[in-house]
Amino acid sequence: MQHPGRVSFKFIDKLKLNDSVCYVKAAFPLLGKILQRTEFKENSSNAKKMQMVRRMYSHIDENVDPCIREEDDEERELSQMCFEEFTTSPYEMLVLVKQFFQDINQLLEKRETFEKDCSQVYRRTCLEPKRAGSSPGGISVGLAGGINLGSVSKPQRLG
């Protein structure tokens, strides 16, 4: 569902999941869908930056020895229970994209293997009733001018 100045998409509430490895594993396929759906004016600086972001995603996904292995059937089914529908500004959505890459970078710097079975984490946190229409990860940012992937700053948490 599209709203003027708003976009709707499925993603993971990072704060609700409260486990960085499981968040990255569950959010990874959703991020791919967001990157596929997001378009900018051809040859604009944002379009070029989006191409770079898509290449980074592909490098993570298509390595000979992938960074994030595909979840087994049970783990994938449980992670899908964590998916929530969000409606935000395009800018807020791009902040999520940037945060995801920052999160995965931190985990890779710590030599994380992403082999952890997240079934128990998903079962514990995602089988409860969902809140519709909230902001993922407690994001609270304003839409200031154009969207520039190079200058997306860290959002402030609510509360």
UniProtKB/TrEMBL annotation:
Domain of life: Eukaryota
Gene3D superfamilies given in the database record: 1.20.1250.10
PANTHER family assigned to the protein according to its UniProt record, in alphabetical order: MACROPHAGE COLONY STIMULATING FACTOR (PTHR10058), MACROPHAGE COLONY-STIMULATING FACTOR 1 (PTHR10058:SF0)
Pfam families: CSF-1
Protein name: CSF1 factor
Coiled-coil annotated spans: none
InterPro entries tied to this protein: 4_helix_cytokine-like_core (IPR009079), MCSF-1 (IPR008001)
GO cellular component entries: extracellular space; membrane
Any single biological process term in GO: osteoclast differentiation
Any one GO molecular function term: cytokine activity
